[in-house]
Amino acid sequence: MKIKSAHFVMSNSKVEHCPNEKIPEYAFIGRSNVGKSSLINMLTDRKGLAKTSGKPGKTQLINHFKINDNWFLVDLPGYGYARVSKKDKKTFQRYITDYFEAREQLVCSFVLVDVRHEPQKIDLEFMEWLGENGIPFCIVFTKADKLKPKAIERQVSAYIAQLLESVWEEAPQYFVTSSSKKMGKETLLHFIDQINSDFFTAQNS
Ligand code: GTP
Ligand code: MG
Question: Would you say 51 and 61 are in contact if contact means Cβ atoms under 8 Å apart?
């Protein structure tokens, strides 16, 4: 899929205020600093579209970006960001979970995890929560440029194996990416394109 246009639509902290349009939407979620905003910029080929930072906690709201005038990418704050106060953290979690529960046009969520890390409790719990609520998701391994191909393979297999040892009977679909090397771009865009086609076909039938 070619990205012909990509623009910022709005930021807000309430799912009720998100855009009304019933077009397919994809959300990027994961720990702070995992590379959510960078991945959005990489996929759209627009460096400054989503704000990125070396410091965790950069993205603080629900940010909608409209792509090719007919679908949305959504940049979310990181969960489990340790440096916000306890009270703020609660508000964070709440409006994020409200978003996932209420957003009907959310066709797939991408849970980002750093390919270098072992499975983290907060990610596993969040995936479990998505599963319990019937919210479709894929895993996106990020920062693959930090490891050699063999190590990537080892990390990914170990991660998936651990998922299968927990509550999952089937491994979720996953992608290996690097925003700095533009790795995984075509595969992810192709995946999105397929879901978009199914969405519009179902809508017109
Ligand atoms: P929050 O908004 O704080 O939740 O973070 P985020 O998940 O949006 O992360 P962001 O995209 O802002 O990136 C965090 C840091 O990781 C930045 O310094 C990025 O340059 C770096 N980064 C993101 N993706 C990659 C990648 O693929 N490879 C490498 N080496 N660094 C990356
Ligand atoms: Mg961000």
Answer: no
